[in-house]
Amino acid sequence: MPSSTPKPSPSPSPTPNLLTSLRTALHQRSLKQSLRRLTLVPPTSTDFSSNDFLSLSTSPLFRARYTSHLSSAPPFYPFASGGSRLLTGNSSYAEALETFIASFHNAPSGLLFNSGFDANVGVLSCIPQPGDVIIHDEYIHASAHEGMRLSRAGRKVPFAHSCPQSLEDVLRREIENDEKLKSGERNVFIVIESIYSMDGDIAPIREFVEVVERVVKSKGNANAYFIVDEAHATGAFGPRGAGVVQELGVEEKMFIRVHTFGKALGSHGAIVLCCPDTREYLVNYARSLIYTTALGFPFLASIRTAYEMLAEGETEELQRNLQHLIEYLGNRLDALGSWDPAIFEVDHFPRSPIFSLRSPVPRQLAAACQRKGFMVHPIMSPTVPKGKERVRVCLHAGNTVEEIDGLVETILAWLNGRESEKRVARL
């Protein structure tokens, strides 16, 4: 008898013209040495690349707490959310978690998103109203750019990276040239990060606040609102890992804070901290929240685990050890001495777990480290500006002094090899 199982229909094949376009674009990237590929991390390698700053993703204490949360769920409790937060995906557990996190961060309320990318896109695509102006740091994350691209704001204007004077100049110019900004009929949003992902530098937030308050005060009824992304600060900076904003005590000066869970907290997702009215507006208008399946219970339990550890002070020793290792690596790199900046240059901001090893040939330096079992990655244009390519090194509380010594010795051996090649080339 013939089989009753229907044969699957073949997927429609792309037209030759489409495939040619795709291949041409990829080939052009390859020629520019900017082609991205998915790679697997060797399980025996030493991690100097991930954003797992507190090493919670491999912490036995974290794992024990997390599995306890999972096992505490009632029988047949759904692990999947089953839908959007606005349909079947909401739960008392999620709402209690939002309240707990908001309280930890001294915020009136919070709203969970599936990722930091979704949070930034959701906020910036819908909060600025028609005719409003967004003033942003020139190095703001790609997710913020995507949100601004979808925004109804009238203008999106960059200012020089982490430069209070540039922010002041741009803010004054925008308000002076727009009567509706001056009268308060339209709004200005200042979008920054507290710690920048590629250079690891900490934004001068207190100085920014002073600039904005001074300019707004001099312009009558003008309104200006800060939106700050704390993705790389969460867990690693501030009291019990609460972030740079709370370290400075300027929570009330921030209109929106975005904290993410996929870096130092070893989890997944993000929260937007804001006032209740803003939260309700996001629930109604943030498409990256409305039209996606909500985080399931295992993700929520993981986030809860991380924040309980922060709130109870169980990560403070990890923070201290991380700072010790940051200082140690900084001293070891300083001891390498001066090298021709055309070959190698270290760029590092005090207290930051992110180090930039600048080099015109970052792929070669990264490959040398990887051959010795140290996982680092080259960061190329367009992720960073052309001419500022580097190897990005991230430290973690779980790294050891011996691992750092091995990494630095590998870098030194590579540098000596480059010098030898130059001498031979001159002969």
From TrEMBL:
<dbReference type="GO" id="GO:0009102">
    <property type="term" value="P:biotin biosynthetic process"/>
</dbReference>
<dbReference type="GO" id="GO:0030170">
    <property type="term" value="F:pyridoxal phosphate binding"/>
</dbReference>
<dbReference type="InterPro" id="IPR015421">
    <property type="entry name" value="PyrdxlP-dep_Trfase_major"/>
</dbReference>
<dbReference type="InterPro" id="IPR004839">
    <property type="entry name" value="Aminotransferase_I/II_large"/>
</dbReference>
<keyword id="KW-0663">Pyridoxal phosphate</keyword>
<dbReference type="Pfam" id="PF00155">
    <property type="entry name" value="Aminotran_1_2"/>
</dbReference>
<protein>
    <submittedName>
        <fullName>Aminotransferase</fullName>
    </submittedName>
</protein>
<dbReference type="InterPro" id="IPR015422">
    <property type="entry name" value="PyrdxlP-dep_Trfase_small"/>
</dbReference>
<keyword id="KW-0808">Transferase</keyword>
<feature type="domain" description="Aminotransferase class I/classII large">
    <location>
        <begin position="46"/>
        <end position="411"/>
    </location>
</feature>
<dbReference type="InterPro" id="IPR015424">
    <property type="entry name" value="PyrdxlP-dep_Trfase"/>
</dbReference>
<dbReference type="InterPro" id="IPR050087">
    <property type="entry name" value="AON_synthase_class-II"/>
</dbReference>
<dbReference type="GO" id="GO:0008483">
    <property type="term" value="F:transaminase activity"/>
</dbReference>
<keyword id="KW-0032">Aminotransferase</keyword>
<comment type="similarity">
    <text>Belongs to the class-II pyridoxal-phosphate-dependent aminotransferase family. BioF subfamily.</text>
</comment>
